[in-house]
Design goal:
With 386 residues, this protein is of the alpha/beta class. The protein has 14 helices and 12 strands. Helix 7 links the parallel strand 4 and strand 5. It binds pyridoxal-5'-phosphate.
């Protein structure tokens, strides 16, 4: 399907709403019925007809169709956060006594679910280095029900060979879930490699303006409908019509933003890499990246996020650098219009800082929509002050 068709037309029925270009925000909790039997039939399956917006809603439906098509999936659910997409996707595929194999250091709230919530229900997790497919094979147990992936990871960008892991999982009747937030469906389509459920934080590139929190989950109609009927309706974690409308608006410009961010990222990386205070950079499409070949095999490109390791001997110097930046802000999240940094040393106590530990000296940068020169100048003066 043509991406221009997906983003501008698919799922939209303008004659239903006065030929408005932008779809209405169907801000309603409930829908009326004229016939008792229609109500009776809908009670049996809320996915077939509008009844209550915790289930399906017309504005949200437009978004679901577009996002499913972008991922090359049959169906999609949109949640009120990426974390709730993770929560429902995992919960729907485990029962007491089951086991999960996960990449080490998955997104923090996936990790917290695995460590803090699932053990109470007798579900255990083994974390592995996912850069080697053999590690998955070794970790699988007879009770393994999920393999949880994140490729690339959003700080150090470790990849997994999606096709190889999907094949292994299918052979063992295990559900694969992949967090695709880094790439967005424009740069990677895990469904096409055989992954069962692909998710992304819609807060990042889909929303694209740092004003909406959302999560996207795509898969086969059978898998998605099963989650809809149970975890989605039961948790009430679906996206609101207004936020769905904001994501539809974000989608209109997604390819233009990704193109621009990609061009700027390469320019900023060029500068950062050559700076004497930078030891190295970590970016999936950089010549120095250990998994470059795999990146090129399964991803179309990379953009936005990269990490650099500062050549410094004290945490104060890192703090000085971060606090000296005039335009690039210090904040979590990414995918919006604004460039951001986040230093790894903010996750540890100052007293625990170890200058021989590379990750302690790591800064993750997100490149937004500003001019490359504007960002480079800001970084340059930040390095100077450090
Ligand atoms: C932000 C993020 C999430 C969670 O999404 P929210 O919308 O913040 O709940 C999940 N995975 C990755 C890789 C993320 O960056």
């Amino acid at each position: 399907m043509d991406i221009s068709y997906i983003l501008n037309e698919l799922g939209e029925d303008r004659e239903q709403y006065f030929n408005a270009i932008s779809p209405p925000i169907m801000q309603t909790s409930n829908f009326a019925f004229k016939k008792v039997d229609e109500l009776r039939q809908t009670f049996k399956d809320e996915s077939t007809r509008y009844i209550y917006s915790r289930g399906i809603n017309p504005t949200v439906d437009i978004l679901r169709k577009k996002l499913a098509a972008l991922d090359g999936a049959e169906d999609c659910l949109v949640f009120n956060s990426g974390a709730s997409a993770i929560f429902c996707a995992v919960l729907a595929n485990v029962k007491s006594g089951d086991h999960i194999v996960s990449v080490r250091e998955p997104y923090s709230w996936a990790w917290r679910m695995f460590n803090n919530i699932l053990p109470r229900f007798n579900v255990s997790v083994t974390y592995i280095d996912g850069t080697d497919t053999a590690n998955f094979e070794k970790a699988i147990q007879p009770n393994t029900s999920i393999i949880y992936l994140e490729s690339p990871n959003s700080f150090m960008f470790d990849l997994q060979d999606l096709k190889a892991v999907a094949t292994l999982a299918k052979k063992n009747n295990i559900t694969t879930i992949c967090d695709n937030s880094y790439c967005s469906p424009l740069y990677q389509k895990p469904i096409e490699t055989g992954i069962d459920l692909v998710l992304q934080s819609g807060t990042k590139y889909i929303g694209g303006h740092s004003d909406t929190v959302a999560g996207v989950l795509c898969g086969s109609h059978e898998r998605i409908n099963k989650i809809f009927q149970s975890e989605y309706l039961n948790s009430g974690a679906g996206i609101t019509p207004f936020n769905a409308w904001l994501l539809i608006r974000g989608l209109r410009t997604l390819p233009a933003r990704i193109d621009r961010i990609t061009q700027t990222t390469y320019k900023v990386i060029e500068f950062v890499k050559s700076h004497p205070l930078v030891e190295k950079i970590i970016f999936p499409f950089d010549e120095s990246f250990p998994q470059l070949e795999l990146a090129k095999k399964q991803m179309k490109n990379a953009c936005g996020l990269f990490t650099f390791i500062l050549k410094v001997d004290s945490v104060e110097k890192i703090e000085k650098f971060c606090e000296s930046l005039q335009h690039i802000m210090m904040a979590v999240s990414w995918g919006g219009h604004e460039s951001l940094i986040i230093p790894k040393c903010a996750s540890i106590e100052r007293s625990d800082f170890d200058p021989t530990n590379q990750t302690h000296r790591a800064i993750r940068m997100y490149v937004g929509l500003e001019e490359a020169e504007y960002l480079i100048e800001d970084l340059r003066q930040g390095f100077d002050k450090m």
